[in-house]
Amino acid sequence: MKLEFFGAAGEVTGSCHILHVGGKRVLLDCGLIQGSREDEARNHDPFPFDAAAIDAVVLSHAHLDHCGRLPLLVKRGFRGPIHAQRASCELVAILLADAARLEERDAEYLTRKLGRNIKPLYTFEDGRRVVEQLKPRRYGQPFEVAPGVTVTFRDAGHIIGSCSVELRCEENGITRHVLFSGDLGQYDSPILRDPDPVPHADVVLMESTYGGRRHRDRSDTIEEMGRIIAGAEKGNILIPAFAIGRSQEVLYHMGKHFDEWGLGRFRIFLDSPMAIEATEVYRRFHDLYDEEATRLHDRNETMPLLPNLHLTGNTEESMAINRIRSGAIVIAGSGMCNGGRIVHHLRHNLPHESTQVIILGYQARGSLGRRLVDGQERVRIFGRDVPVKAKVHTLGGLSAHGDQDDLARWYERVGGQAPVWLVHGEDEAREDFAAYLAKRSGARVSIPGPGEVLDLA
Ligand SMILES: [Zn+2]
């Protein structure tokens, strides 16, 4: 019985670990590496294991850095079940279809540009096969993923359908409870419930994306977003946002504070086909909402309404937004400005002083979003030098990730004072959080490197 750490040991993206029990191999997540072009090139590398020899996959949630290499796993021979919470299953289908389309389009473009055949990382067909292998599961209901391995999903409060994964492992009469935190949300965040307490664990694998810091208070962030919007006199407001999670939260706050923020004078665009589809999934799975969102839902039979919200599904409508000089609020992906429609909007709007960019989430090293947060005066977009005259606001508090206090609070509700292995964090964040958790909660904390093996027996 052992656990092997692969992706996201020492970085924030590319989550992937293997659990070995009784000769079976269970993969926890199969995430895409995201960030700089050099980092992302590693997605094409062979897996450090044989894809065909994996017996089952357990997926924590539907973000690309956790599920984005699943089509590649299937393409390379994996034929087993992929267990995921039922809302996650729907989101994964949307996410992978979109990712595959982008891959195919980029490969076509590069083939034309370079005059040699460039293959996409995976195709739409590979993504479709992942969806066929998905097994929808519910929170709190145990299921067997391999002989000797039973899984229970717990709500992680990060995006809809997000899970912490409890694994009960049995081999030669020895039982071990392994708990994989997945990405943990903040306590008291809107729409979603708080992370579910877990009764017992012998070993805890924990994310530590924001383990090195405290988020500012969420209500301060929402107030500041309100001030920026209410105080905008001219120009456009750009909000890069993950299609899944952040976009729905931004819409939720806008609906709740519609009059207060003077939103009636804007044209609001949700400029992302994926975010539009994900918003539908959020609406369908209202049984997973927290109390306040449930109350709002019961009153409106939907999330708060925005009468001036335009859902821009097609490219022509999206390009038309670039002709608007003032009075538009554009919510578009990708959240780290690495690709997607937001990049076009940034190219058109960054050179204007009247533009405001609201950055709400984590920006990985090497991403365009990180360069904006770092205050670079010029950035390269589509091979062109673009001056940054826009005002860039970095608002930390709306993160879908818990900060060090949330993470420690979650750990303290896990029965058993289990030793902790920190994954999914840049090295500095992991070291800071290791020290913090040891001091605050008395936990024994380790920081594994990629390829490191933890013996569980
Ligand atoms: Zn996530």
Overview features:
Rossmann fold, 14 helices, alpha/beta, 457 residues, Metallo-beta-lactamase, Chain A, binds zinc ion, single chain, seven-stranded mixed β-sheet, globular, 2 domains
Shape: globular
Strand content: 15-25%
Q: Number of helix segments?
A: 14
Distance N terminus to C terminus? 5 Å
Report the structural category: alpha/beta
Strand order of the largest sheet: 6-5-4-3-2-1-22
CATH architectural grouping of the largest domain: 4-Layer Sandwich
Bound molecules: zinc ion
How many strand segments?
22
How would you describe this structure to a colleague?
The protein has helices spanning 37-41, 64-67, 70-75, 86-114, 124-133, 218-231, 246-256, 273-284, 291-300, 315-321, 341-349, 368-373, 404-412, 427-441; strands at residues 2-7, 16-21, 24-28, 56-58, 82-85, 134-137, 143-146, 149-155, 163-171, 174-180, 203-207, 237-240, 267-270, 309-311, 328-332, 356-359, 378-381, 384-387, 391-394, 420-423, 445-446, 453-455. It folds into two domains: 2-213 and 401-455, Ribonuclease Z/Hydroxyacylglutathione hydrolase-like (Metallo-beta-lactamase, Chain A, 4-Layer Sandwich), CATH 3.60.15.10; 218-398, Rossmann fold (3-Layer(aba) Sandwich). The protein is built from 14 helices and 22 strands. Helix 4 (86-114) runs antiparallel to helix 8 (273-284) and helix 13 packs across helix 14 (427-441). The protein has 457 residues and is an alpha/beta fold. A hairpin with a 2-residue loop joins strand 17 and strand 18 (384-387). Helices cover 32% and strands 22% of the residues. The mean pLDDT is 92. The radius of gyration is 22 Å and the shape is globular. A seven-stranded mixed β-sheet has the order 6-5-4-3-2-1-22. The structure holds zinc ion (ZN).
